[in-house]
Design goal:
The structure holds two protein chains of two kinds.
Chain A lengths: L1 H16 L1 H32 L6 H17 L4 H24 L7 H23 L17 E6 L2 E6 H23 L1 H11 L1 H6 L4 H26 L6 H15 L4 H26 L4 H15 L14
Antiparallel strand pairs in A: 1-2
Chain B lengths: L12 H4 L6 H21 L2 H27 L7 H18 L5 H20 L8 H20 L12 E2 L3 E3 L2 E4 L5 H24 L1 H11 L1 H6 L4 H28 L1 E2 L6 H14 L4 H24 L6 H22 L3 H15 L5
Antiparallel strand pairs in B: 1-4, 2-3
Helix pairs in contact in B: 3-7, 3-10, 3-11, 3-12, 4-5, 4-6, 4-10, 5-10, 7-8, 7-10, 8-10, 11-12, 12-13, 12-14
The chains are: A mainly alpha, B mainly alpha.
Chain lengths: 318, 358
């Protein structure tokens, strides 16, 4: 009986009695969720355009951030380093398309998935070899990102909002809006949507698949760079981010593999759910349930709605 | 010339259906077993036995386990590491409670615990497949890893949070712990691996294996011809997890001699999955090739350059190793998506028709 009370009633009593803590937890969840969404967004972009489940997205985040910090450490001014990193991500997209995707055209999905595993390992090795394995500090100040926190009085307490988190939320929304515009309004965007619809049909009307793949991987690289800067500014740039990247998988399940809004909403749900669960229910189980809660949420969701919140209904999934 | 079946006539159905119908294959297997069981323990150095052969065999066993699930039944799993962990911790708990019992029995029994856990986490496989199932098994991976860290019962409430393998006996000989000799451990591992490989080979060539493959190739059609999907998939999960569990128990008890929860993290799952992919999905022989390539190559990378007089830092080797593994995975997928096992098949075919091209 006492256990039932602890599970079903006590957390809500806590929420009601300390609303400032609740809001703080919600905010933390929201911020974590935005970062999950950004990683998931990279997945979705590539999955839509090439049907490749890009496992390497997470490592591309780390790689981009490492390149940026590493270049700056070699004395290159921050903004120039940023431009150079963008160039590196473009180079990566070209190389991936030439070396990996082109020879693997028409292979089953699982083979392409495995190839991105290979890419993951390759990038880990390359990144550590070139820039060293130790964690680095993101050059947030040099890039003109705000620091410090705003304290807001709320319901008899304080809610502390990190400025960098607010910036992250704004920049991500801007980026998503830009991507949506790009997809809807430009010539290339239309071609991208055509490719996502059907490779064969797109080829037959004269759209170059190779070109589209480069563009899409480059876009995913840009998303990865943004994610890397934001995440790096909050903690540090290291390969521990890899685990965070795995968190994008439940986000994708929740949102659907092909939906950009799905990735955003899914990310926020996972982020908030995880933080709330950890804060209010975590102590019951011994803390650290954050590590698996997201997967369990996704799993339960999967049983009810296998196509995700906004996903297309595919027979393949069930 | 040497590898040709001309003149080997089959006079009964049993011979016709044999797994190795060609004499040379049977001789080859005999030679391999002879090398493994006699030459290596007799002539091999302690380093070869302890640091190469024992882990190689254990990883092969785990790879066979995952191959039964992913290669034969077509269910992608990223929870291998956790299932191996279940085996290791089950064996540890069992031998804590019953120290007098033959440790070999507990190693096998731990496989059953792993199988139960595997079946439980395999339940979603009826409803989802592909990447979605991979995420579901990832849930198993993270949940079980969390359990190994957070629930002190698993490691007997000791301060370090790691498990330490005690000395245990089988038939009066020390098998685990500090007093066990390398050769004893090697023979135990070899025995397990050979017996379970033989079992797996019989499984996949029999009714159960055919059911698995039917489900893999098209589950709808398999269901139509009367294969019960739930049972078949769960059986695949159970047997695969059994293999992984035994491999996990062997890993900790006969190789590491102790383990932290971090041993069984998601990287181990990926590691085993690479072995399956590189070796060849749906091939028992390929499992050995894959394990050999992925496990032994880093050892070679570490020991060969210093011998040649090229100075390398251990950290650099680690990084290069990652790069080479990654590049190799991509390379093999491009050259031969069916893995080393397929290359081996092609090589055998070339040998049969040699010196003619066709």
């Amino acid at each position: 009986m006492h256990l039932l009370y602890l599970i079903f009633i006590d957390p809500f009593v806590q929420m009601a009695s300390a609303p400032d803590l609740l809001v703080q937890t919600l905010w933390d969840g929201l911020v974590a969720g935005v970062l999950y969404s950004l990683i998931a967004l990279g997945f979705v972009l590539i999955f839509k355009a090439s049907g490749v489940f890009n496992f390497a997205q997470g490592i591309m985040v780390v790689f981009a951030a490492l390149t940026l910090v590493g270049l700056h450490e070699h004395g290159i001014p921050a903004y120039l380093a940023l431009a150079m990193t963008i160039a590196v991500m473009f180079g990566l997209a070209v190389v991936v398309e030439r070396v990996m995707l082109r020879p693997l055209v028409n292979q089953p999905d699982i083979i392409l998935f495995m190839a991105t595993f290979g890419l993951t390992y390759f990038l880990i090795g390359l990144g550590e070899l070139v820039f060293g394995g130790e964690p680095k500090v993101m050059i947030a100040r040099q890039l003109g990102l705000p620091r410090g926190a705003i304290d807001i009085k709320f319901a008899g307490g304080f809610v502390s909002l990190q400025k960098i988190d607010i910036a992250a939320a704004i920049i991500s929304s801007l980026m998503v809006a830009a991507l949506a515009l790009f997809f809807q309004k430009t010539r290339i965007g239309r071609a991208l949507r055509a490719v996502a619809d059907s490779h064969k049909a797109a080829l037959s009307v004269g759209i170059s698949l190779e070109q589209i793949w480069v563009i899409v991987w480059f876009a995913a690289g840009l998303v990865a760079l943004t994610t890397g800067i934001m995440w790096g500014a909050r903690s540090e740039v290291s390969f521990a981010l890899e685990i965070i990247a795995l968190k994008a998988l439940p986000v994708l399940i929740l949102g659907g593999f092909t939906s950009i809004p799905g990735a955003i909403v899914g990310g926020v749900i996972i982020g908030v759910g995880e933080k709330i669960g950890e804060f209010y229910w975590g102590p019951l189980l011994g803390s650290g349930i954050e590590s698996w809660l997201a997967y369990v949420i996704a799993l339960l969701f999967l049983l009810v709605r296998p196509q995700g919140l906004f996903g297309e209904k595919l027979i393949e999934r069930i | 010339m040497l590898y040709r079946e001309a003149g080997q006539f089959k006079t009964n159905y049993a011979a016709d259906m044999a797994i190795m119908p060609i004499l040379q294959d049977r001789v080859g297997l005999g030679v391999i077993l002879f090398i493994a069981a006699v030459l290596i323990p007799w002539l091999g150095s302690s380093f070869l036995i302890q640091a190469v052969m024992i882990p190689f065999l254990i990883f092969s066993l785990a790879t066979i386990g995952l191959n039964l699930l992913t290669g034969y039944t077509g269910l992608l799993s990223l929870g291998t590491g956790a299932f191996m962990g279940v085996g290791a911790y089950a064996c540890y708990k069992l031998t804590t409670y019953f120290p007098g019992v033959n440790i070999l029995i507990w190693v096998l029994a731990s496989g059953f615990f792993s199988a139960i856990v595997g079946v439980f986490f395999g339940l979603p496989s009826l409803r989802i497949k592909g990447f979605y199932l991979a995420v579901a098994t990832l849930a198993a991976q993270f949940f079980l890893s969390w359990c190994f860290i957070r629930l002190p019962w698993f490691y007997n409430y000791n301060g370090s949070g790691a498990i330490e393998v005690p000395t245990r006996y089988a038939f009066g000989v020390a098998v685990t712990g500090a007093t066990a000799t390398d050769t004893t451990r090697y023979f135990v591992v070899l025995g397990f691996v050979v017996a379970m490989t033989w079992l797996a080979s019989n499984l996949v060539h029999g009714r159960i294996g055919r059911m698995w493959m039917a489900v893999r190739d098209m589950d709808l059609a398999a269901e139509l011809i009367g294969i019960r999907l739930l049972r078949t998939k769960l059986l695949a999960f159970a047997i695969s997890s059994f293999y992984c569990g035994v491999a996990g128990a062997l890993l900790v008890f006969l190789w590491y001699g102790g383990a932290e929860p971090a041993v069984f993290d998601v990287n181990l799952s990926f590691f085993i999955l690479f072995m399956v992919i590189i070796g060849g999905l749906g091939s028992i022989t390929g499992s050995y090739f894959g394990a050999a390539l992925i496990f032994i190559m880093p050892i070679l990378l570490r020991y060969i350059p210093p011998k040649l007089g090229i100075p390398v830092y251990p950290a650099t080797v680690d990084h290069i190793q990652y790069m080479i593994i990654g590049a190799l995975i991509i390379f093999f997928l491009i050259v031969e998506p069916n893995g080393l096992a397929r290359l081996w098949q092609i090589a055998k075919q070339k040998l049969r028709v040699w010196p003619f091209p066709y």
